[in-house]
Write the structure tokens for this entry.
Amino acid sequence: MILSYLPKLQTHFLLPLKPKTLKTHFNPSLLPLTHFRIFSLFSSLSPTLPTQNPKSPISISQQSDSDDDDVDVEEPHIEVSIDKLFVPPETDISSLTSSSTNTKTGWSARILKGSNIVLSKYASNAQVINAEFVKSSVATEACPNDGLPEFALVGRSNVGKSSLLNSLVRRKKLALTSKKPGKTQCINHFRINDSWYLVDLPGYGFAAAPGEVKKEWDKFTKDYFLQRSTLVSVFLLIDASIPAKKIDLEYASWLGQNKIPMTLVFTKCDKRKKKKNGGKRPEENVQYFQELIREFFEAAPPWIMTSSVTNQGRDEILLHMAQLRNYWLKH
Ligand SMILES: Nc1nc2c(ncn2[C@@H]2O[C@H](COP(=O)(O)OP(=O)(O)OP(=O)(O)O)[C@@H](O)[C@H]2O)c(=O)[nH]1
Ligand SMILES: [Mg+2]
């Protein structure tokens, strides 16, 4: 096995930064939704997309099964232009615009629901059969050294990193969660199916911890990103129930500048009451974030909408992790 970063061969995975510095001020309201090219491609977890004229938008509904007070049953629509799709290497997307299956391989590309991620032939063995906590570390050198591939969950304190991990492994309390920001304080390794790791990290931004302690978290977390050779991709969590935060854009920018592969995971998509959340629906916040991120990235990073309450996006993230992992293992 060659322990190299997945994206080295593909600009789609590299997400190169434009040579720009982050603006100190941004105003999402200056970026109306009409700036998006109206061209939709979506799929559910059905084997192929329905036949569509690529110029006519496809409506996709995302139903919630939660009875949370903050959840409503409105079906959101997000539109993604074809040039904003995340296309894994060796993936032919011609079948996205037709129902035809590649006759040689019997395989046909599709887009994961609530995301811009095209599913490739590498997306196998996505189920979690077992998951176990392995260790907590506060330095990269102290992390497990068995060479297994891993995915790290990072994001602002309280964004839902530990909750997402529990959702992915279908366990309520494998990772500890709290309403109080600052719960996770170490690099926590969880081994999945004895073959790969999910890594829960401390949050950045506001946390119930002294400044010096938070600086220390930031230092060992960033050192881990820069040094960890088995890190396949970072999953940067963004709260979709509130408008974009500058600190999240700065974090995405830092990851990009350091060429660290990244997937954006929008959390708390079940929180849909406009009044409670600054007047925007999660899908609107997601779209604004896409627009803002375009300032810093030449290619669209992969992104996906999730909820640890309704488990929205759980199967899709596992499929995406499977394709990143299997590609990494073969290259
Ligand atoms: N409605 C809703 N609440 C969520 C979701 N994910 C997490 N939460 C809540 O958000 C709070 C923080 O969740 P955690 O998973 O502990 O967040 P974290 O990012 O690990 O936080 P730190 O470890 O402190 O950095 C908890 O009260 C969770 O129940 C979600 O998808 N929807
Ligand atoms: Mg946590």
Summary: Strands lie at 110-111, 118-119, 131-137, 150-155, 187-192, 196-200, 231-239, 262-267, 303-305. The CA atoms of residues 6 and 328 lie 5 Å apart.
